[in-house]
Amino acid sequence: MNTVNIHEAKTHLSAILKRVESGEEILIAKSGHPIARISPLAPASGKREPGSAKGRLVVSETFSDPLPADLMKEFEK
After folding, report:
1. Is 61 within a domain?
2. Is 36 helix (H, G, I), strand (E, B) or coil?
3. pLDDT truncated to tens, each residue of the chain (77 aa)?
4. Closest to 4 measured CA to CA, from 18, 21, 25
């Protein structure tokens, strides 16, 4: 993992981000002490598919019932 100081990071941010995009991790240091790490994000998990959670979510029959009076008072403050 390479280390760059804050000034270099500010001056060459685009080049540093290209390195990160290619998989490299970069430490940013202040006075020689690491303070931040820039690392590539994990690739997107793919296309979302409607209905893929079917059967894994249960909505109770009382979901739309009014809230209890004592809880409603908390919202009205």
Report:
1. no
2. strand
3. 899 999 999 999 999 999 999 999 999 999 999 999 999 998 877 888 898 888 898 899 999 999 999 999 998 87
4. 25
Instruction: Please state, in angstroms and rounded to a whole number, the distance separating the CA atoms of residues 6 and 28.
Output: 6
In a domain, 72, yes or no: no
How many independent structural domains does the chain possess? 1
User: Taking the complete model, does pTM exceed 0.90, yes or no?
Assistant: no
In a domain, residue 12? The reply is yes
Would 43 be classed as within a structural domain? no
Instruction: Using alpha carbons, select from 58, 16, 53, 67 the residue that is nearest to residue 37.
Output: 16
